[in-house]
Amino acid sequence: MQRRNFLKSSCNICLLGAAGFALPKLTGCSPALHSTGVYKATIVGNALEIPLALFENTSLQVVRPLGWFYDIAVEKRANNTYAALLMQCTHQDNQLTASGTGFSCSLHGSQFDKNGNVLKGPAEDPLRQYKTTIGKSTLTIEVPKTP
Ligand code: FES
To answer: Which residue among 26, 48, 49, 105 is least crowded, i.e. fewest CB within 10 A of its CB?
Structure first.
């Protein structure tokens, strides 16, 4: 009986340890096919700052402003400029999924290109875009307090 209890409690400890190891990796999963993960950032004033180093191995970075429901897709373009698009469907506000060619909505099938323009409805309006400014080592994204 004691051996059984020992084995049972040992298994529970192993399961808790495995869950603690796996959970941070799961919460870092990206909805984007070509993004390296979701970068969480705090809005200070009306801006978000993210490290330019995030773009060393990818041209697309999904940023999650703390306290927001929607992510922002930040793309580094060939001419060393950056575009920041709110991943909120303009049809009925569903969170979008990023891919290498643009964004898609799983709710009713709207599709947007990399610039946020509508490729396929029912959405009619383009995605909201935020101004970006390149600093020494950071990119500043000007955002409202809420999307
Ligand atoms: S909410 Fe995105 S297509 Fe309807």
So the answer is: 26
| pTM of the predicted structure, to 2 decimals | 0.74
- Residues 94-128: pLDDT tens digits? 999 987 789 999 999 999 999 999 999 999 999 99
Based on the fold, state whether residues 41 and 22 are members of the same structural domain. Answer: no
User: Based on the domain organization, do 44 and 68 belong to the same domain?
Assistant: yes
Same domain, 62 and 123: yes
Determine which residue's CA is closest to atom 1 belonging to ligand 1.
92
CA of 109 to the centre of ligand 1 (A): 6
pLDDT confidence band for 37 (50 / 70 / 90): confident
Pocket flag, ligand 1, residue 91 (CB < 6 Å): yes
Residue 55 and residue 86 in one domain: yes
Pocket-testing residue among 89, 118, 125, ligand 1, by greatest number of atoms within 8 A of Cβ: 89
Identify the residue whose tokens are 């990206």.
30
Same domain? 7 vs 42: no
Q: Does 18 map to a domain?
A: yes
CA separation, residue 144 to residues 20, 44, 54, 66, 75 (Å): 35, 10, 23, 13, 19
Quick one: pLDDT band at residue 3, thresholds 50, 70, 90? low
User: Which alpha helices (H) appear in the chain, and where do they start and end?
Assistant: 2-27
